[in-house]
Design brief:
Rossmann fold; alpha/beta; 251 residues; 20% strand; globular
Length: 251
């Protein structure tokens, strides 16, 4: 942070630019500092998904309800939801288990002049209380939850969601076909190269993240969401092996 309390200007992600000892990826202070640049250059369509979260929130937020951004990181989707909520009697909470992310998120929220209050909580999204929800966002978050715990979390979200409410779920996916998986992975790596990442950076980040980010197939996601209690699951965005889905609770 600067001395004025404002977040620093965007910092270029160089975390994997030099040889380093293998270690699992963590959302620590170093990652928090470069996160805006990292996710923009790593996730195709991220700059489209964020403003569309505002549009979807405006369509599905219900008066007197709660809205949640689970795994809010620096608050990009939280702010999108804040600007999309059309009712002043709604509440909005951003939850993340990384203290470094929450600390920086607080500054971004404070700099935004929208009047709707935002509650930020440093908690495990698998344990945080959920109730009376109309819009919940898991924006590239579920993939970091252990696979065996994902059904329970989605069931908790569905049970807390009002009739007609939604879950916005963005994820990196894998494909049933090995050929398609190889092609989509190659295209994703080319996207990273086009954004200035070197082969060393791509390789080292992939090694660091592959043990903590566990992708699943689109069909697995759809089946789990329906089993959890959502009536319909729609894919509203896809680029390479990154998708965003809308899971809708029956009215």
């Amino acid at each position: 942070m600067t001395k004025s309390g404002r977040p620093e200007e965007p910092v270029t992600d160089r975390l994997f630019a030099t040889e380093r000892q293998p270690e699992d990826f963590r959302f620590d202070a170093a990652v928090a500092r470069v996160f805006p640049d990292m996710i923009r250059r790593s996730v195709p369509g991220y700059t489209t998904i964020i403003p569309m979260i505002e549009v979807i929130t405006e369509q599905y937020a219900q008066p007197g309800s709660n809205c949640y951004d689970l795994g809010c990181s620096l608050g990009a989707s939280t702010l999108a939801m804040r600007h999309g909520i059309p009712y002043d009697d709604c509440s909005l909470a951003g939850i993340d288990n990384s203290e470094a992310m929450i600390e920086r998120c607080q500054h971004y929220i404070a700099l935004d002049d929208h009047p709707l209050p935002v509650s930020l909580r440093c908690e495990d999204i698998q344990q945080t209380p959920l109730a009376n929800a109309s819009v919940t966002t898991l924006n590239f978050t579920l993939q970091f939850v252990p696979p065996e715990a994902r059904s329970h979390l989605l069931t908790r979200i569905a049970e807390a969601t009002r009739p007609g409410g939604v879950l916005i779920l963005s994820e990196k996916i894998r494909f049933e076909s090995e050929d398609e998986q190889a092609t989509q992975t190659r295209l994703h790596h080319e996207f990273k190269r086009a954004n200035g990442y070197s082969d060393l950076e791509i390789s080292q980040k992939r090694s660091a993240i592959e043990q903590v980010l566990i992708p699943e197939t689109l069909e697995a996601h759809k089946q789990r969401l329906k089993a959890a209690g959502f009536e319909r699951v729609l894919v509203w965005y896809q680029c390479f092996n990154f998708v965003s889905m809308l899971a809708i609770k029956a009215e």
